[in-house]
Amino acid sequence: MKFAILADIHGNSFALDAVLRDMASLGVEQAVNLGDVFSGPIDAAGTAALLMARDFATVRGNHDRYLIEQDPSRMGPSDRVAFESLSRDHLQWIAGLPETQTIFGDVFLCHATPNSDSTYWLERVEETGAVRSASLAEITAEAEGGRGEPDPLRPYAYPALHSPAGRADHRKPRQHRLSCLR
Fold first, then answer.
1. How far apart are alpha carbons 11 and 95 in whole angstroms?
2. Mind listing the pLDDT tens digit for each residue in 27-80?
3. Which phi and psi angles does 175 have, rounded to 5°?
4. Which own/partner contact pairs does 84-89 have at CB distance under 8 Å and 24+ positions apart?
5. What is the C-alpha to C-alpha distance for residues 93 and 33, in angstroms, rounded to an integer?
6. Mind listing the pLDDT tens digit for each residue in 149-177?
7. CB neighbour class for 110 (10 Å; exposed up to 12, middle 13-18, buried from 19)
8. DSSP state of 134
9. I need a labelling partner for 170 at 20 to 30 A (CA). Which of 113, 122, 123, 146 fits?
């Protein structure tokens, strides 16, 4: 099965539209969305319209959670701009998104880690601010619920997809081009 992976759209309906056109040109009809969909100053409502019209498997990211859990007066600027542009229907759609999801029978989706939408999975930030790659033991511990034992409620034998937000360097510029799993 061939599908696109979307993540960290942050209200950029123009980039999303470009990716959707790329998908159509490549004959890719299915996608998964790994969260942080709306928070950003560009076009949260337009992003909502594009995504809600499609049946893509979507999980909620930390910024999506902020939009439905935080008082708007306590939101950061990007979250607040997005919140003010979203309708009640948009916010209800966000509230209905799962934190994790298993699709296609064996693909596990999460935003950052299986147990947290705001913890880096593949890297660690030291107290000095230095970023290092997580060890295999640290990565495995996140997958096993942080307890060093398998979590019976989560199917970790499955392939796992997580957002670039699971990386400490996720703010580095990256090319927004469709990637497909084959």
1. 17
2. 999 999 999 999 999 999 999 999 999 999 999 999 999 999 999 999 999 999
3. -70, 130
4. 85/43, 85/44, 85/45, 86/38, 86/44, 86/45, 86/48, 87/45, 87/48, 89/52
5. 14
6. 444 444 443 345 555 554 444 444 333 33
7. buried
8. P
9. 146
Locus of tokens 């708007």: 72
The encoded tokens of residue 168 equal: 């400490």
State the CB neighbour count (10 A cutoff) for residue 93.
19
Dig out the tokens for 138 from the structure. 């640290």
Which among 111, 108, 89, 90 has a CA at the least distance from the CA of 48?
Answer: 90
How far is 77 from 74, CA to CA, in rounded Å? 9
Token output for 36: 């942080």
Show the tokens assigned to 106: 């064996």
Name the CATH superfamily for 3-181: Metallo-dependent phosphatases (3.60.21.10)
Q: What is the dihedral of CA 146, 150, 155, 160, to 10 degrees?
A: 40
